[in-house]
Specification:
Strand order of the largest sheet: 2-1-5-4-3-7-8
Shape: globular
Largest sheet: 7 strands, mixed
Structural class: alpha+beta
CATH architecture: 3-Layer(aba) Sandwich
């Protein structure tokens, strides 16, 4: 465990109360817009595709970011654990493959198969969805209720490097609050990861 890394990671997240998501994106309490994106199985999916969902765990992630890679197994476990409880995991790759060739649609298909993704892994073709949500990093999580109301935004937990050393499971705590009819506290944490890759203008 890199102690300095963990200290900096924790400090970055634990400014929870003062964090505001970008004005261009959704805030907790906003209704998230739907999307219609192609998944690695060749089909298109939207929030409306899952009419019986109790809620949604929307994760902006990718193949190439080291932080995203460190969280892949945890995202798979979240899908297994909470899918049974009605929470649909939806992963969205927001990166431009011309900037990051490892994040191409074809390589997404390979990655999803290799990691055993049991949830849609969508390609944000044209990069229209992530700005609407206000995602800035990979990974960046948005927890929505069944009516698509944003309940939590930010990090999955407080330790990207070592899942066994996690002390605060921000996303799971938010889901637990939602299940009890309460508002998650914190409702926003700072997403720690790689910047979303776009072509220079």
């Amino acid at each position: 465990m890199n102690v300095l890394f963990q200290i900096l990671f924790t400090i970055s997240i634990l400014t929870n109360g003062d964090i505001k998501v970008p004005n261009s994106g959704f805030q907790p309490g906003d209704k998230a817009s739907d999307f219609d994106l192609k998944s690695v199985d060749g089909k298109n999916y939207s929030l409306a595709s899952f009419k019986d969902a109790k809620g949604f765990i929307v994760v902006f992630t990718c193949n190439s970011c080291p932080f995203a890679v460190m969280y892949e197994d945890r995202i798979v476990e979240l899908s297994k654990k909470y899918g049974k409880k009605g929470y649909q995991v939806i992963a969205i790759n927001p990166n431009d493959p011309e900037v990051k060739p490892d994040d191409s649609y074809e390589k997404m298909k390979v990655r999803a198969k290799d990691k055993g993704f049991d949830f849609p892994y969508l390609f944000d073709d044209g990069q229209k969805v992530y700005p609407a949500y206000g995602a800035t990093k990979t990974p960046h999580v948005f927890l929505l209720d069944k009516n698509h109301i944003v309940k939590y935004i930010g990090a999955i937990d407080d330790n990207a490097e070592d899942a066994s050393q996690v002390e605060e499971k921000y996303l799971e705590n938010a889901i637990a609050a939602l299940d009890k009819g309460k508002e998650p506290v914190p409702a926003v944490t700072k997403a720690i990861g790689c910047s979303i890759k776009v072509k220079s203008k």
